[in-house]
């Protein structure tokens, strides 16, 4: 009877499942963390350490999280967990942006569906509905973020709608009032007709839009001889702004021509014999657009000859527009399209406004909040630029008809171009001059302070610095007022006589105290006397009812989160958001902090790209290419999503689709199997078995060297926020160095050597070290899986992998000389395994253990190295003959490994039934004839 030796082989055994089962295991681990109060334990464990504070950019509380939000929160969690395991105290306070148009818009939609108007509802009631809506979605998103494995102070997050937060936002705004940076002025701002409010640049999207273009004659009233009796021709894509025209801009250094029309095409509005003035380079384009078939150039001159010396008549002169239209020089006039003349409507353009301000042009208010011409506007009263649904109104067509009737319309066309739209309603915007509240970029040197602060911040990637620097350098004053109902009010009183805001510290203090106690609703529900006190007559003051720009809210979070919470610090160590936040949260936070504290509220800023599909396309429901994080978690588990984040270069746009997720799941499977084999092979391991590195064979010391290299790579990757480099180095090590090499070589020793074997003890000592390193290094990313592995091997009711720190790797593990030797030995091994693979494929052997190849080494240095290693163990053969020399011509070789040739040969002897090696010694032991000497010693003597 053949003896069964299976029980004598030390095969791996572990409770760490081969199948991940993340969908079921992850919620249980979340419950465990909540039960342990893991966040509280972390704070105690890291108390007194260097603080690392990542300040959470508040997501909007108005719907389920999407894949981009999941990416953002996972990145933050990986950073916080890694910084904690690097030994720092990394508290994380999540927060929510609760005010603003998106939430208000949802409540209005509900009203509209019910046939109601929000204006018919008391403002306090409407605001309460907005508050309840935000509160609901905070609860939903909190659960979704938690399911991603994000650890933080979920029991006490910050909310911009909490009473203390609203009070601090009010206080921050009043600081600008008191330092003179806040003022009211009438400037053109981007205005949403649909939402009836001003919008900030960060609330604007740019989409293709088809505009009506017109060429319009402005008859010259007076000026140099060269333009008398002619008409200056302007071109614009906004016909509705013609009634607001108060000037014309030209380029002083450009060439202009006076042209006499001699022939026109059929249907042309040009007239034979008329004289027009346009830029010389654009004359052919103008002639084609106006149907001018032939012309004579009567004169040429630079723009400087007519600028500030020419006055034109408005096209509607005699119909209520009886004012002069001066020609001015403007540095924004270009020669790429149009006529070389820009019509100036100071009420409806930033460049127009600034040019008009410098030269005293009026800024007429002609358009109301609903996009309609006001009742006193000649010819066009009541006409609308846009209808309430955002579609083009009847203003353009009315202006075109009036221009044609007055003889001012020379040409008409259509143009598709990029145009600003509201990010909420998706409707086109208009520039509209209205009285708004602004924070000056020049008062108190805010712009200069912000530009200086930018250079004191670490920007990752570095191009972020240039981007925000250019924005700050060129940005206009910050318009902070919104004509809405849900948000923090601009708590000001304006003197009706002087039109100046009241600056009184005692009044400010009463306002802040009221908001602290009752929330911002107190501003709307309290009589003015409550705030003004006995020293002021309410009748003499206008109470401002505008709402603060929601970006001012979020830009102030540093004040009521970082400065107010004892566990945090100001400035933050890091802000992290998408690259669009250079014009959003990074921007508003910078301006708010520089305006009140003189520096940025962050030491570093990291930006990530956007999520796109596998083909690089933007995700949209219409394309059907969206990936919901909830679905990924339900199908694969959160750790797969976290692995996708960590192995992607987030400095660029991140691709995701089902195939990409499958590839990440395969990487996860290999990592899990690596860990499982380590844990299984460590069954029964104890400290008594452990060997010191000095007692280990070279192969184990080579693994320790690789760990020393990995330690540097992992720490640098996490520290530099390049997780993909750190984790891919870790993954490559597990798959290439461990599974495909070290484990392959050492399986025999671990399975078949006796417990006292130096090889086996050394290997298991290294596996124990590997377990500690790999689980800790991977824990910030695979937070659930590494916790499962840790608790499987080190069961505890109170411990967690996340309470650990990255291992301290001894400096003497680093051994470049040994690494260089083993690099060459691994090259030699590749030639042997390549030769044996052919033998297997040709079915001349079944496994490498049936072979005893002859290895020819021509390189004397390599031959000497090879003599110091057990090559048969390295190649997993039952023997190996090493011969110095080039070897026969028919030997197997690899092109990239010179001087090594292999002649395959079969091993001779019997097959050991325990270790499967083929050796001559098998059969030498009468009591165990099927065993080799090594296996006999283990079985017979233990």
UniProtKB/TrEMBL annotation:
Alphabetical GO biological process terms: isoleucyl-tRNA aminoacylation
EC number: 6.1.1.5
GO cellular component terms, A-Z: cytosol
Name this polypeptide is given: Isoleucine--tRNA ligase
InterPro entries with a match to the protein in the record: aa-tRNA-synth_I_CS (IPR001412), aa-tRNA-synth_Ia (IPR002300), Anticodon_Ile_BEm (IPR033708), Ile-tRNA-ligase (IPR002301), Ile-tRNA-ligase_type1 (IPR023585), Ile-tRNA_ligase (IPR050081), M/V/L/I-tRNA-synth_anticd-bd (IPR013155), Rossmann-like_a/b/a_fold (IPR014729)
Record organism: Zavarzinia compransoris
NCBIfam families for the chain: ileS
UniProt keyword ATP-binding present: yes
Subcellular localization: Cytoplasm
Residues where L-isoleucyl-5'-AMP binds: 577
Main location (coarse class): cytoplasm
Molecular function terms from GO: aminoacyl-tRNA deacylase activity; ATP binding; isoleucine-tRNA ligase activity; tRNA binding; zinc ion binding
Placement of sequence motif 'KMSKS' region: 618-622
Reactions catalysed, as given in the entry: tRNA(Ile) + L-isoleucine + ATP = L-isoleucyl-tRNA(Ile) + AMP + diphosphate
Binding site for ATP: 621
């Amino acid at each position: 009877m053949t003896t069964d030796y299976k029980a004598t082989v030390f095969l791996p055994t572990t409770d760490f499942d081969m199948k991940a089962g993340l969908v079921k295991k992850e919620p249980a681990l979340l419950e465990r963390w909540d039960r342990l109060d893991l966040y509280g334990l972390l704070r105690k464990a890291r108390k007194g350490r260097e603080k690392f504070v990542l300040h959470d950019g508040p997501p909007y509380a108005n719907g389920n999280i999407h894949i981009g939000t999941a990416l953002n929160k996972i990145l933050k969690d990986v950073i916080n967990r890694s910084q904690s395991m690097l030994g720092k105290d990394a508290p994380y306070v999540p927060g929510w942006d609760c005010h603003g148009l998106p939430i208000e818009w949802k409540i209005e939609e509900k009203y509209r569906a019910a046939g109601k108007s929000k204006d018919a509802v008391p403002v306090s009631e409407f605001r309460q509905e907005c508050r309840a809506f935000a509160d609901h979605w905070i609860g939903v998103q909190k659960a979704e973020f938690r399911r991603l494995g994000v650890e933080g102070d979920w029991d006490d997050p910050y909310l911009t709608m909490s009473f203390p937060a609203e009070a601090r936002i009010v206080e921050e705004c009043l600081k600008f009032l008191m330092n003179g940076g806040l003022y009211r002025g009438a400037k053109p701002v981007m205005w949403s007709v649909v939402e009836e409010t001003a919008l900030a640049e960060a609330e604007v999207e740019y989409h293709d839009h088809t505009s009506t273009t017109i060429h319009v004659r402005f008859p010259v009233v007076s000026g140099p001889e060269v333009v008398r009796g002619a008409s200056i021709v302007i071109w614009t894509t906004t016909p509705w702004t013609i009634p607001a025209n108060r000037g014309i801009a030209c380029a002083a250094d450009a060439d202009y021509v006076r042209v006499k029309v001699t022939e026109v095409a059929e249907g042309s509005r040009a007239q034979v014999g008329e004289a027009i003035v346009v830029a010389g380079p654009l004359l052919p384009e103008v002639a084609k657009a106006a149907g001018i078939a032939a012309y004579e150039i009567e004169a040429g001159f630079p723009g400087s000859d007519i600028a500030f010396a020419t006055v034109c008549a408005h096209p509607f002169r005699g119909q209520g527009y009886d004012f002069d239209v001066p020609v001015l020089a403007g540095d924004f006039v270009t020669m790429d399209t149009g006529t070389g003349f820009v019509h100036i409507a100071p009420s409806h353009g930033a460049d127009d406004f600034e040019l008009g301000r410098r030269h005293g042009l009026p800024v007429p208010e002609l358009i109301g909040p609903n996009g309609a011409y006001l009742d006193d506007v000649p010819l066009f009263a009541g006409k609308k630029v846009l209808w309430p649904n955002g579609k083009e109104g009847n203003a353009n067509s009315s202006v075109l008809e009036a221009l044609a009737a007055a003889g001012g319309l020379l040409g008409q066309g259509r143009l598709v171009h990029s145009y600003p739209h509201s990010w909420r309603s998706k409707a086109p915007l208009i520039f509209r001059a209205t009285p708004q509240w602004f924070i000056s970029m020049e008062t108190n040197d805010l712009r200069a302070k912000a530009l200086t602060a930018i250079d004191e911040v670490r920007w990752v990637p570095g191009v972020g610095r240039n981007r925000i620097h250019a924005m700050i350098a060129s940005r206009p004053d910050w318009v902070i007022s919104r004509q809405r109902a849900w948000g923090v009010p601009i708590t000001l009183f304006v003197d009706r006589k002087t039109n100046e805001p009241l600056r009184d510290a005692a009044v400010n203090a009463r306002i802040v105290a009221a908001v602290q106690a009752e929330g911002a609703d107190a501003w709307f529900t309290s009589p003015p006397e409550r705030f003004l006190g006995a020293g002021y007559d309410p009748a003499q003051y206008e109470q401002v009812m505008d709402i603060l720009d929601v970006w001012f809210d979020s830009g102030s979070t540093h004040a009521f989160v970082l400065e107010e919470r004892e566990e945090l610090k100001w400035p933050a160590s890091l802000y992290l958001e998408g690259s669009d936040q250079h014009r959003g949260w990074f921007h508003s936070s910078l301006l708010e902090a520089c305006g009140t504290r003189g520096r940025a509220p962050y030491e570093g800023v990291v930006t990530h790209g956007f999520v796109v599909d596998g083909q690089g396309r933007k995700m949209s429901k219409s394309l059907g290419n969206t990936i919901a994080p909830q679905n990924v978690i339900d199908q694969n588990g959160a750790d797969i999503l976290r692995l996708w984040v960590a192995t992607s270069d987030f400095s660029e746009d991140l691709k995701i689709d089902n195939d990409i997720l499958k590839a990440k799941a395969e990487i996860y499977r290999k990592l899990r199997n690596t860990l499982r084999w380590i844990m299984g092979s460590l069954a029964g391991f104890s400290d008594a078995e452990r060997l010191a590195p000095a007692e280990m064979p070279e192969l184990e010391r080579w693994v320790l060297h690789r760990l020393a290299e990995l330690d540097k790579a992992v720490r640098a990757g996490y520290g530099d926020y390049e997780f993909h480099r750190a984790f891919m180095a870790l993954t490559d090590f597990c798959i290439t160095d461990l599974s495909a090499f070290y484990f392959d070589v050492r399986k025999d020793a671990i399975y078949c050597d006796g417990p006292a074997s130096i090889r086996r003890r050394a290997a298991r000592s290294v596996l124990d070290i590997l377990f500690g390193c790999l689980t800790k290094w991977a824990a910030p990313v695979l937070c659930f899986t590494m916790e499962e592995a840790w608790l499987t091997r080190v069961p505890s009711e109170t411990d967690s992998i996340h309470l650990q720190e990255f291992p301290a790797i001894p400096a003497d593990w680093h051994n470049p000389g040994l690494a260089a030797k083993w690099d060459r030995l691994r090259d030699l091994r590749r030639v042997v395994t390549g030769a044996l693979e052919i033998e297997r494929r040709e079915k001349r052997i079944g496994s490498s253990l049936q072979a005893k190849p002859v290895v020819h080494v021509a390189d004397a240095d390599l031959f000497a190295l090879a003599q110091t290693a057990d090559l048969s163990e390295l190649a997993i053969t039952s023997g190996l003959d090493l011969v110095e020399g080039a070897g026969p011509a028919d030997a197997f070789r690899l092109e990239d490994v010179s001087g090594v040739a292999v002649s395959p040969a079969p091993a001779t002897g019997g097959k050991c039934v325990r270790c499967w090696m083929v050796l001559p010694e098998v059969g030498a032991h009468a009591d165990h004839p099927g065993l080799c000497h090594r296996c006999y010693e283990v079985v017979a003597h233990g």
